[in-house]
Amino acid sequence: MLSKKVQDSLNKQIEVEAYSSQVYLAMASWAETKGLNGVASFLFTHSNEERQHMLKLVRYVNTRGGTSDVPALKKPPKTYKSVRDVFQQILDHERKVSQDINNVVDLTLKEKDYITHNFMQWYVAEQIEEESLAQTMIDKLNLISEDAGGLYLFDRDLEAGHGK
Ligand code: OFO
């Protein structure tokens, strides 16, 4: 059985993951309208992954005798300055999400809820991957700088699935 505090913090995390899915979706849609099909497809896939992160939490809360809260969806930004701007915003966003997850983990220890603590380890590991992936993309984009040919190849690589 979840304590009220743990349930509330998991419900807050459900909202965070739902918003992440929206953010990636908005970015994917922007990229698609710019002809960046590789970037778009990478981001559409990631948006689906974030939805899975949210669902996993919804199911967990319900399974543990709690009641999950399906949140209203906040509107994400619609336009971005560049592909580099997109990935910088992703990195900033994921760093913030990592902090949110740390807060949930911290609370599970305070509440001596070791089952939820164990469940949350999957999210901890996922955040390491997500931050590092965003950083790798930024590193590649820094190498390319303003080079249009480089951006074309970056996009094509993502389309071929080499970005992961
Ligand atoms: Fe759910 O990992 Fe990103 O936000």
Please give the structural blueprint.
Blueprint: H1 4-33, H2 37-63, H3 83-110, H4 114-144, H5 148-159
Helix pairs in contact: 1-2, 1-3, 2-5, 3-4
Hydroxy diiron-OXO moiety is lined by residues 17, 20, 50, 53, 94, 97, 126, 130.
Give the tally of structural domains: 1
Report the order of strands and helices: HHHHH
Helix content: over 70%
Write down how many β-strands occur, each being a DSSP E stretch of 2 or more residues: 0
Instruction: Report the bound ligands by name, code or SMILES.
Output: hydroxy diiron-OXO moiety
CATH topology: Ferritin
Within CATH, the superfamily carries the name: Ferritin, core subunit, four-helix bundle
Mean pLDDT: 95
Structural class: mainly alpha
The helix tally amounts to: 5
Beta-strand percentage range: under 5%
Radius of gyration: 17 Å
At CATH level 2, the architecture is Up-down Bundle
Cα distance spanning the termini: 37 Å
Unreliable segments of 5+ consecutive residues:
none
Q: How is the main sheet built?
A: none
Description of the structure:
The chain has 164 residues and is an all-alpha fold. The chain has one domain (4-159): Ferritin. The protein has helices spanning 4-33, 37-63, 83-110, 114-144, 148-159. Helix 1 runs antiparallel to helix 2, helix 1 packs antiparallel against helix 3 and helix 3 packs antiparallel against helix 4. The radius of gyration is 17 Å and the shape is elongated. The mean pLDDT is 95. The structure holds hydroxy diiron-OXO moiety. Hydroxy diiron-OXO moiety binds next to helix 1, helix 2, helix 3 and helix 4. Hydroxy diiron-OXO moiety binds at residues 17, 20, 50, 53, 94, 97, 126, 130.
